[in-house]
Design brief:
heterodimer; A: 788 residues; six-stranded mixed beta barrel; six-stranded mixed barrel; B: 236 residues; alpha/beta; Rossmann fold; six-stranded mixed sheet; four-stranded antiparallel sheet; binds adenosine-5'-triphosphate; binds magnesium ion
Chain lengths: 788, 236
């Protein structure tokens, strides 16, 4: 038989269903976030690992100028090497019909008569390469889609100076190219970088590599020491122009992917706990007030001889029911949205399959946090009722002693009507309750505000990057460093307004055991088109006596201005330099390293070299300029700032940044949940008083005013506090959203504050209207009869 | 009648609040309630009747003095002991009915029989107050008097050692009032429970073994009634 207490439980839950659902919803959102992010991160990790394994992605890469194929056997003999594949890779420029700027591509060879031992490709559409036909290629699917190319279409590309016609037979994907950027560019863009796979013989012919390879791929035995293998590779390949072997972790695509995932890992460990904490706090407040309202009934149960334990268990079940419904809904929707997000990432990265996986630990944590915080609210409230003797608990709370309250209402008597005075007196009489309500609403608002702050941080980041830091229109990069005389040719072109040289040198920065693989940008001392900034708006003078590091690198390498750093140059003569860090620059995009170009060239003993130039051009003559650039043999590529901006916007909105929209929505739900619950509880606590007012002849409007006036004042007090809390949270949340590719400035501006305040006010008005309906429907007789 | 005292108080005091606004609800109550008696408490409003009963029933704590229940001092009990004391021995009918609004009449009774050692059947208990037909109604669907009768059924149903009733007939008409008093007398006579009833209806005193009159926080008068009437005979 169901015990009478359990029946009471069921009916009380049903009676308070609106409120219970509102609470459950807040819990659900906190849990959803936790489970969703966990599912997303785990699934991406798993999927990535599986994708790498199935298509045998190499563990190490060894680029070399030109090495004979027989060397591959020697490589295979290195201790710890399990498999070796030699291949030919080279740069290409693709002509796209109707587009002036050429598109850069990487050509990669595939063995003709067997499966590649390493770095296999997934054929998404079309056919495999026919070994006998040298004009057949596979094309990276993302690029093909971006340009509407299909198997069967033709493609013309320039390789090694010669223009050639190809036939696309298939569209492929590869774990090696999940994330592709043209060399020297940061932001991936499907439409502006291509990968072409073709038969080894054909590609070797194009690049004069017959019987040779220019990249070795290495698969390691389990547990083999990577550094030792890399060192052995470097020793073997050095005579043939080895450019330095590197492990998978430094492979471009893998690095981006790994960083994207670790960005999500940070998001996961920062953002959901904040949401969960706010939800838990709300839960605590609401539950403790709900239970305080049950004081009479608790006293009665105690009077009958129910023990504290029995009463506690009863209310624990009550709390548990709400928390579990919320947690279950959160888990369910968390899995669904995690799966949807992961699926979205799968599409975004064009991974052929997805392994969705949620760690059961995430469920447990989510459920435990909601149950514990809800119970804590219950325990505190029960404790305070248990502290009373049953006789006192059962007495309807004595009418508050308004004589003791600071009587602002009395002082304003002449100006205020009766209902207004009731509102003020009530607040003055129960400042503790009002204070907790203020904190709750402020916390919700802070959460919303920090999300709005992060949203606007994204656009600020874009703005700063593309209007303040980079003021060029296009960037030209050369196939290899050239004499700076080449720049005159650019400057002479009709429509080119300004030319600014730069040098890009691949390096590994080292500080003790910490290292970073990237590129030094050599800039002129007072750059105008591409600047290094501090405090967002102050340009830094590029000094000759050292390097300027981006903030992200300062943190990654743990160096400060004044420290010395080792620069391992990976190009040309490959000197190893030491230089002081002279300044730290803001970095919203990428992790730049700056040095004065003259000093850089001098350090490399390569005076007057440039890797390319940034241009400011007359937009009317842009197409003509691109056409000319395309025909300059030294030009490897041209990238337009507009395209780069669009591409960055795309990855911010569609990549890891996409979760911010979901999170902002959830912050709104939580904020609304808090405001609504506050209003609803105030109503439950006052139902009896409100009914009395109505009986005395007050109108519905006046009765509602007494209730909602109080809510209004609480909300108004909460607004400034919410702004303070938002300030506190935005830093943590922005850090959670920043990745190695871009960082989000943490700040709350006036507009964000206004937006969040508006959101809270809207929530308050909506809650007010919902509760007003309850006031209007108040059953006077029932409310007065049952003295709950 | 047995010679043992169910309750004995010595110098029992109760002060609400402190300082100048303190209310001395009990100013030294000395009384004896022998086991198995039916006692009626009379007194002006505010004289301390409810306060006394609350302390004897373990619902409230005294400020001073002693209150013995069969030689055990209630005032010295811990919270836990008080809970067990109420659970095992005491039945209450409150001045305000104090029903659980979300439970039906029968379920309100079950709430107590659940944890009682030797309870009556809830429906039977409701029958004693003439409400077995309304057992599925919720408090909001019952009149004040009916709610009070449910509260009485609830108190009787656990077959308590002691039954405390704070104005059980205050809201009732004479006929139902007599039924209720009859039920209380039954509990006293058939089950041997000690019963204490607070009332403003002086006529009720006629059915008591003992009448205690309180005034200003103390016992002003105590009379023993050698020939108590049965409830039906009471002039209302
Ligand atoms: N919680 C309390 N705080 C302060 N004073 C109290 C409290 N409870 C009772 N009193 C005061 O103690 C005195 C005795 O109250 P009690 O309720 O015992 O009276 P009573 O005899 O039962 O009166 P009635 O017949 O009106 O029920 C009264 O003056 C009352 O105002
Ligand atoms: Mg009383």
């Amino acid at each position: 038989m169901v015990s009478p207490l359990d029946k009471k439980l069921g009916r009380d839950l049903w009676r308070m269903k609106t409120q219970a659902l509102a609470i459950a919803m807040v819990i659900a959102v906190g849990v959803l976030m936790l489970v969703m992010m966990d599912g997303l991160v785990n699934s991406l990790e798993e999927t990535k690992t599986a994708y790498y394994e199935r298509y045998r992605l190499a563990d190490a890469f060894a680029p070399v100028k030109r090495a004979p194929r027989r060397l591959l056997e020697e490589i295979a003999d290195i201790d710890g090497v399990a498999s070796v594949e030699g291949r030919v890779v080279g740069g290409a420029l693709i002509d796209i019909e109707g587009q002036a700027a050429p598109v850069r591509a990487q050509a990669v060879s595939l063995p003709e008569f067997r499966e590649p031992r390493l770095n296999d490709v997934f054929l998404a559409r079309g056919a495999k390469l026919d070994a006998r036909r040298h004009d057949e290629i596979l094309l990276l699917e993302g690029f093909a889609d971006a340009h509407g190319l299909e198997p069967g279409d033709r493609l013309s590309a320039t390789m090694n100076g010669a223009r050639r016609e190809f036939r696309i037979v298939g569209l492929a994907q590869s774990p090696e190219f999940l994330y592709t950027t043209a060399p020297g560019e940061l932001v991936p863009d499907d439409s502006r970088f291509a990968v072409i796979w073709m038969g080894e013989e054909a590609l070797a012919a194009a690049f004069d590599m017959d019987g040779a390879f220019n990249e070795a791929l290495i698969g390691l035995e389990r547990g083999a020491p990577l550094p030792a293998v890399l060192a052995a590779l470097d020793r073997l390949l050095d005579p043939y122009g080895g450019a330095g072997a590197y492990g998978l972790e430094d492979q471009l695509s893998n690095r981006f992917i790994t960083e994207e995932i670790s960005g999500l890992v940070v998001s996961r460990s920062v953002v959901p706990p904040i949401f969960m904490a706010v939800a838990a706090f709300l839960l605590y407040i609401v539950i403790s007030r709900m239970i305080s309202a049950e004081r009479l009934q608790i006293g009665l149960l105690k009077a009958f001889g129910y023990t504290n334990m029995e009463v506690g268990v009863h209310y624990f079940k009550f709390v548990l029911a709400i928390a579990l419904v919320g947690a279950a809904a959160g888990c369910l929707f968390g899995i669904l949205s995690g799966q949807a997000l992961a699926g979205y990432y799968q599409l975004y990265y064009k991974i052929p399959f997805l392994i969705f996986l949620v760690d059961p630990g995430a469920f447990l944590i989510a459920v435990a946090v909601s149950v514990v915080s809800a119970s804590a609210g219950g325990v505190i409230a029960l404790q305070s009722v248990f502290a009373l003797t049953p006789a006192v608990a059962m007495r309807p709370p004595a009418p508050p002693d308004y004589s003791r309250a600071f009587d602002i209402a009395g002082a304003l008597k002449t100006w205020l009507d009766q209902p207004s005075r009731m509102v003020l007196r009530r607040l003055g009489r129960q400042p503790g309750k009002a204070f907790v309500a203020v904190i709750g609403i402020a916390a919700g608002m802070g959460l919303s505000l920090s999300m709005i702050g992060v949203m606007s941080g994204f656009s600020r980041s874009m703005d700063l990057t593309f209007t303040v830091i980079d003021r060029s229109d296009a960037t030209v990069s050369f196939i290899e460093p050239l004499s700076d005389k080449t720049l005159y040719e650019l400057a002479r072109m009709d429509g080119v307004i300004e030319v600014e040289r730069f040098r890009e040198v691949p390096v590994i920065l080292r500080n003790g055991t910490k290292s970073h693989r990237g590129g030094i940008s050599g800039l002129i001392a007072e750059p105008r088109l591409s600047r290094a900034m501090v405090n967002e708006t102050d340009p830094i003078h590029i000094r000759k006596d050292g390097v300027i590091l981006a903030q992200t690198l300062r943190d990654k390498l743990d160096v400060e201005a004044g420290d010395m750093i080792t620069i391992d140059v990976r190009e040309g003569r490959r000197p190893i330099l030491t230089a002081p860090v002279v300044a730290i620059a803001d970095s919203l995009l990428g992790a730049p390293i700056y040095m004065e170009i003259g000093a850089l060239n001098e350090a490399l003993s390569e005076p007057h070299r440039v890797s390319g130039a940034r241009l400011r051009i007359d937009s009317d003559k842009a197409d003509m300029i691109y056409e000319k650039l395309k025909n300059m043999p030294a030009v490897a590529g041209v990238s337009l700032k507009g395209d780069a901006r669009d591409a960055l916007e795309k990855i911010m909105n569609e990549g890891a940044g996409a979760t911010r929209f979901i999170m902002a929505g959830m912050a709104a739900v939580i904020t609304f949940g808090i405001v609504f619950n506050s209003a609803r509880i105030a109503f439950a606590e006052r139902a009896h008083d409100l009914a009395s007012l109505r009986v005395m002849g007050f109108t519905k409007g006046e009765a509602a005013f007494v209730l909602l006036g109080e809510l209004g004042i609480i909300v108004l007090i909460a607004l400034p506090l919410g702004i303070v809390i938002g300030h506190g949270l935005v830093g943590a949340i922005a850090a959670g959203f920043s990745t190695d590719l871009y960082s989000i400035p943490a700040e709350v501006d006036a507009a964000s504050g206004g937006g969040a305040a508006l959101a809270v006010l809207i929530a308050a008005v909506a809650s007010g209207l919902l509760v007003k309906r309850d006031v209007d429907r108040l059953d006077l007789v029932a409310a007065l009869k049952s003295r709950e | 009648m047995s010679e043992r005292a169910a309750f004995e108080t010595r110098g029992l005091t109760k002060v609400y609040g402190e300082g100048p606004t303190a209310v001395h609800a009990l100013r030294g109550v000395d009384l004896v309630i022998p086991e198995g008696e039916l006692v009626v408490l009379l007194g002006a409003s505010g004289s301390g009747k409810s306060t006394l009963l609350n302390i004897l029933g373990g619902l409230d704590r005294a400020s001073g003095g002693a209150a013995l229940f069969f030689d055990k001092d209630i005032t010295a009990m811990t919270d836990r002991q008080l809970t067990l004391y109420r659970r095992e021995h005491i039945g209450f009918v409150f001045q305000f009915y104090n029903l659980m609004p979300s439970l039906s009449a029968e379920e309100n009774v079950e709430l107590v029989t659940e944890i009682a050692e030797n309870p009556l059947d809830p429906v039977e208990a409701l029958g004693l107050v003439g409400l077995d037909k309304r057992r599925d109604h919720f408090p909001a669907e019952l009149s004040g008097g009916e709610q009070q009768r449910v509260a009485i059924a609830r108190a009787i149903a656990k077959q308590p050692t002691v039954l405390f009733c704070d104005e059980p007939t205050g809201a009732l008409d004479s006929v139902t009032g007599r039924t209720v008093l009859g039920a209380l007398q039954n509990v006293n006579r058939e089950l041997g429970a000690t019963v204490a009833i607070i009332t403003h209806a002086a006529a009720t005193a006629a059915m008591a073994d003992r009448v205690i009159i309180m005034s200003d926080g103390a016992v002003r008068e105590m009379t023993v009634n050698d020939a108590p009437q049965s409830a039906e005979e009471i002039e209302w």
